[in-house]
Amino acid sequence: MVKTKTADRLNRIVEAALFTFIEHGFKGTTLQDVADRAGVSVGSIYSYAAGKEALFELALRQALHVPLPRPATLPYAGTTTDLVSLVWSCVVGIARFPELEAAANRPPPKDPLAELEQIVSGIWDWQARHWRAIELIERCAREWPELHMLYYKEFRRGAFETATALLERRMREGALRSYPDPATALRVVVESVAFFAMHRHIRPDSADLDEEICKRTVLDMVVAAFDPGCG
Which domains does the chain have, with CATH numbers? Predict the structure, then answer.
């Protein structure tokens, strides 16, 4: 039994839980899995979290950069048993794309390639900051049909529709290079950013790539691909 609860041990347990949930999902994760990864006993985990649901909440808080509870208040009991609603509220809370929203409501800029770079850079920064939360949410969305519908049909589709409409407009205006299907072109951009800003962190052959070099390379390639003078 843990006699003294510490912030360091709490952080180690929550980090282990976070990556175990990302790898195995909520349903596929056991407290023994987390204990093995953290190098503690299952009994130790119960000193910090009341159960798997509470541990999942702590992992989500960690991924969203929300401060963890003070050791004196542990074990953490959680705030809800409705994890789908909790996760969805977190998605809504971090869904901010100011560069895209601003561009969607203005006429063609003097430098459309600079506008495009600013938008893609903003998306990169958002994904790089929240990559652990997004990986966790996407993994668990596979298990919870309601969350899957909300995340992919409302959140992602809404963002894609806004970005696709802007891309189509800039192509019609001649500000950006045209492609047969703007939605597909956008998907290429988004998936490229997603891999290097987020997914590479959990890929053994890509995790050690330098962040700034990755970002600069992706931005340069995206901007060059939409340069109307290179078509």
Answer: 7-81 (1.10.10.60), 84-230 (1.10.357.10)
